[in-house]
Amino acid sequence: MPTQTPSAPEPPASARDLVGIGIGPFNLSLAALAEPLTGLDAVFLDQRPAFHWHPGLLLDGATLQVPFLADLVTLADPASRWSFLSYLRTRDRLFPFYFAERFHIHRAEYDAYCRWVSGQLPSLRFGHQADTVRFAEQRGLFEVDFTRLDADGEVEALGRTTTRSVVLGVGTAPHVPGPLRPLAQDPQVPVVHSADYLGHREELLTAGHITVIGSGQSGAEIFLDLLRRRPKGREAIHWLARSEAFAPMEYSRLGLEHFTPDYTRYFHALPQSERDRLVPHQWQLHKGIDTDTISAIHDELYRRSLHGGWPDAVLTPAVRVRTAGRLAGDRIELHLEHLQQRTRSRLTTDAVVLATGYRERPLDRLLEPLAGRLARDTQGRPEVDEQHRLVLDPPLPPGHQLYVQNAERHTHGVGAPDLGLAAWRSARILNDLTGRATYPLPERTAFTTFGLPTAPADSPPAQRTAVPGTGVGDGERTTVAR
Predict the structure, then answer these.
(1) 327-363 confidence digits (pLDDT tens)
(2) Which pLDDT score, from 0 to 100, does residue 75 have?
(3) CA–CA separation, 155 vs 127, rounded Å?
(4) Sequence-distant (≥ 6) Cβ neighbours of residue 28 within 8 angstroms
(5) DSSP characters for 342-406?
(6) How many CB atoms lie within 10 A of CB 146?
(7) Crossing angle for the helix pair 107-118 and 25-34, nearest 10 degrees?
(8) How far apart are CA 1 and CA 20, in angstroms?
């Protein structure tokens, strides 16, 4: 049967106010906060058939690393009908949650909560793959071309919508290091990313020897899950990490203030060279391991040594994989280098789990018609202003913006991918979009003052002003001209 050619796109009757591309937690937060705003015409597109949040990592007992208040809306609008507590109320679970005294909820529960919200918002369009974003100068509007997909992911029709503003929330993609990419792309080789762990767990458990690569929370949870499911004395698991230690995440109260709007403003005001220097040094703020998980791993290893002997589990930090190859009999050989000893060795294993994190999805394909207009820094990355707008040259007409979510760590710091700033950033975008303080936001959010006030040497104290973003006299700019 010949494949049917999809029909040509037809422009909508009138332009929308906002089109969101991607429906992860951040654009879902924006959609939830936009929903009660009468007169705001917004729609959000995602190629997936429904919302799911990291389904391959919804391990039993795994919890979020942020408190339940870091839901989609509460830190901007605690009275919202889309809060996590509202979700519990609809499930008659408020009293069980109250007595559980849980500040950090289960990851699977967060996923269920987000799916509850996504199932009720009329602005969401799943099964819609955004293809291209362009700015039509003659019409003074963005044109977003998309492909409508059926339940099997097959092309059903082409479409186009016009809008005054766009927000890109395309999220991140699993990162596979270069040396392991050929093996990971071969479906016959058991090399899987942690994002797909649950779907391959039973297959992995049949392997004679398993190697886990990556020292973050996902690597720790997967190592612990495999360890608990392997027989005592025959664990045959090797956990490798490039970091210098299996280190705990920085979770002190003042350390957490790096995930406040105050720090975001301060970081954005720094020179690019200083921002680029800071981010790699702050890895323990977001790439460390929860102390409860570290304790659980040690407890499990200790329990297996109670009657003498050591478990067949090896944990080695400060190691990188130089190259990798496939041996006869479907075994895998990893060529390793110890970064401190400067020594090299080989490790033969039967399966590999890559807990190697995620990278921001590039925007180049989607924004190809705007490529010559995007302002970029010295590293070729898009410039993003303080209001989370891509900087364009020449700029767009007033009232037209191109926003990004979770694609601005290089300009806004370690808080960019953090769920705790989702509601605040969404509110900030909506305030900028509407040109008023639709969601009033606090002027100060941290006890820490991240910078020093600056003034000319001969200025009296009363005339001193704060460095933007330091939290000293630098209020939240919620009313912005469109």
Answers:
(1) 987 899 999 999 999 999 999 999 999 999 999 999 9
(2) 98
(3) 10
(4) 44, 51, 72, 114, 117, 118, 121, 124
(5) --EEEEEESEEEE---EEEPP-TTTTGGGGGGB-B-TTSPBPB-TTSBB-BSSPPPTT--EEESS
(6) 23
(7) 40
(8) 36
Integer angstrom CA distances of residue 28 from 7, 89, 115, 161, 425: 29, 20, 10, 19, 12
Cα–Cα distance between 325 and 348 in angstroms, integer? 10
Specify whether the CB–CB gap between 241 and 318 falls below 8 A: yes
> Which of 58, 46, 75 minimizes the C-alpha distance to 415?
75
Question: Is the distance from CB of 49 to CB of 198 less than 8 angstroms?
Answer: no
What is d(CA 240, CA 246) in angstroms, rounded to the nearest whole number? Answer: 10
Comparing 227 with 456, which gets the higher pLDDT?
227
SS3 21: strand
Q: Rounded distance, CA 173 to CA 354, Å? A: 13
| Prediction pTM value | 0.90
Taking a C-beta distance cutoff of 8 angstroms, is the pair 385, 401 a contact? no
Spatial separation of the C-alpha atoms in residues 171 and 422, rounded to whole Å: 13
Helix (H, G, I), strand (E, B) or coil at 444: coil
Q: How far apart are CA 441 and CA 429, in angstroms?
A: 12
Cα four-point dihedral sign 259, 262, 265, 267: negative
According to DSSP, residue 290 is labeled -
Per cent of the chain over pLDDT 70 is 91
Residue 80 and residue 430 in contact, taking contact as beta carbons nearer than 8 Å: no
**Distances 101 to 75, 92, 97 between C-alpha atoms, Å:** 20, 16, 7
Distances (CA, A) of 152 to 115, 130, 155, 156, 284: 20, 17, 9, 10, 41
Q: Where are the alpha helices (DSSP H) in 230-309?
A: 261-269, 272-281, 291-303
Residue 296 burial (CB < 10 Å; 0-12/13-18/19+)? middle
Q: Residue 272 in contact with residue 378, Cβ under 8 Å?
A: yes
**What is the rounded CA–CA span in Å between residue 28 and residue 123?**
10
